[in-house]
């Protein structure tokens, strides 16, 4: 069903930095690990502030109060419990190795949390998972359980962050108790690292992260970099210090034999690797509508991936879903919802900074299944369009429900044509400006049942995603949507 009608509407942020829907509960969704979230509403400044306050309030209520015991929380608690048991055994003298190597356990947790956020590692992991269990004979339960786990890897990241602080604090206490065996410099450096880790974790707390996202991103980034530099200094000082002579004597052999050095080297490689792919590339920017721009790049990209762009690579990065036919070019849909995205409309730059290493998210796992219903509201459509364009390049039979307001006016003819060119019997496009606001949850259940889909993947605002997932699960249909940490 196609129902597309021109009209006027206000804009707000969504999964790909734009959503066009004037309904009261249509707010932004989270950025994938680091996708920036911004809000805008037309009208006076007071109206804009009121709308943002309302959006923040709704979002925080979903994040903090209405999630239940999620897989993310389960993973967080299991990982934290394992660390706390080991720490308790070490403190009580029943785990002497951990007591002697408390700083190593702290660094090991930092390595684990880095692995769970490494775009290169996750790209490889998602690829291997799709190749391994994305076969028709693999039971659906295994696929859905794997999807749920991979989507919630942030639980390991968060838990290891808390655990690394606990282990480092334990190590610092032991060091101070035996300060005759160490130096003041080592204690000071360890204490500063502890403060930086605590500051980084505090900035990542949901209430801070989602109300002050720029504070979170910059604190997390620069505190992390500084802590890494100081960690190398801590290791060099620790392996060089001789308590008998109270002096430093560094040798390469000590460095090679030191376990902390190898763990820290792995952390450094994982952090530096994405930055080695940063390039300034030529782009073509065109106006999709008064609310959005389309940014085009050379080179095809496989379906299900996201990309990062920046006007200034050291200060800010913006992540968007990638739209590509997999051949000659790819593009991103950017809404005019922040300083950077508004500047794209006004200045239309010829070059932007990009990370050549594109990263995988929930949508990449669409490839695990045989028949999938994709449900999008507003600009959530952009993360799914590659599957429509590359229908001959993957084995997945994809169906689509897209709900948005004044679609052609707000998204432009180019985006609309990409959807229109897909087989009509596999698509439902619902323009709320023409047909009114639907019950997307009921539509999803009906669509999945009619098309006999194995699973439903939704991109919407927090409330919308929750409604679709709950409706589908009530009907015993597996469903997944962005979580607050996705």
From TrEMBL:
It comes from the Eukaryota. Residues 1-33 are annotated as: Disordered. The keyword Electron transport does not apply. Keywords: Membrane, Transmembrane, Transmembrane helix. The keyword Cell cycle does not apply. Residues 18-33 have a biased composition (Acidic residues). The chain crosses the membrane at residues 74-95, 149-174, 186-207, 222-241, 262-278, 368-389. SUPFAM superfamilies: Ferredoxin reductase-like, C-terminal NADP-linked domain (SSF52343). This is Uncharacterized protein. It comes from Arachis hypogaea.
């Amino acid at each position: 069903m196609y129902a597309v009608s021109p009209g006027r509407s206000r804009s707000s942020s969504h999964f790909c930095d734009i959503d066009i829907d004037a309904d009261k509960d249509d707010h932004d969704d989270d950025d994938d690990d680091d996708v920036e979230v911004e809000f805008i509403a037309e009208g006076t400044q007071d109206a804009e502030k009121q709308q943002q306050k309302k959006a923040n309030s709704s979002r925080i209520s979903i994040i903090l109060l209405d999630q239940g015991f999620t897989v993310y929380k389960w993973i967080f608690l299991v990982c934290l419990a394992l660390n706390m048991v080991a720490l308790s055994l070490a403190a009580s003298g029943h785990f002497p190795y951990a007591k002697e190597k408390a700083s190593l356990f702290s660094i090991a947790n930092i390595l684990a949390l880095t692995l769970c956020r490494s775009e290169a590692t996750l790209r490889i992991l998602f690829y291997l998972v799709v190749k391994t269990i994305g076969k028709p004979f693999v039971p659906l339960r295994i696929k859905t359980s794997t999807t749920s786990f991979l989507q919630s890897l942030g639980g390991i990241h968060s838990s290891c962050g808390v655990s690394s602080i606990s282990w480092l604090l334990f190590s610092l206490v032991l060091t101070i108790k035996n300060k005759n065996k160490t130096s003041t410099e080592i204690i000071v450096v360890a204490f500063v690292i502890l403060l930086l880790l605590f500051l980084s974790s505090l900035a990542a707390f949901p209430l801070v992260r989602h109300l002050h996202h720029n504070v979170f991103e910059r604190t997390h980034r620069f505190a992390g970099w500084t802590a890494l530099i100081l960690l190398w200094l801590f290791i060099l000082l620790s392996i060089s210090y001789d308590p008998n002579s109270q002096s430093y004597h560094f040798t390469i052999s000590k460095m090679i034999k030191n376990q902390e050095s190898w763990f820290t080297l792995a952390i450094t490689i994982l952090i530096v690797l994405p930055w080695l792919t940063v390039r300034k590339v030529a782009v073509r920017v065109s106006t999709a509508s008064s609310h959005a721009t389309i940014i085009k790049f050379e080179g095809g990209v496989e379906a299900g991936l996201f990309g990062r762009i920046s006007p200034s690579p050291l200060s800010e990065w913006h992540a968007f879903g990638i739209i590509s036919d997999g051949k000659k070019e790819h593009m991103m849909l950017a809404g005019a919802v922040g300083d950077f995205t508004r500047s794209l409309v006004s200045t239309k730059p010829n070059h932007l900074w990009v990370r050549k290493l594109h990263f995988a998210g929930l949508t990449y796992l669409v490839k695990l299944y045989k028949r999938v219903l994709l449900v999008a509201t507003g600009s959530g459509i952009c993360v799914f369009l590659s599957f429509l364009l590359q229908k001959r390049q993957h084995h997945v039979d994809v169906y689509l429900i897209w709900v948005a307001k004044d679609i052609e006016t707000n998204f432009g003819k180019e985006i609309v044509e990409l959807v229109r060119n897909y087989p009509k019997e596999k698509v439902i496009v619902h323009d709320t400006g023409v047909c009114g606001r639907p019950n997307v949850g009921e539509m999803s259940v009906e669509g999945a049942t009619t098309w006999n889909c194995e699973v439903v993947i939704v991109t919407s605002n927090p409330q919308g995603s929750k409604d679709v997932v709950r409706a589908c699960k009530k009907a015993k249909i597996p469903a997944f949507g962005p979580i607050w940490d996705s």
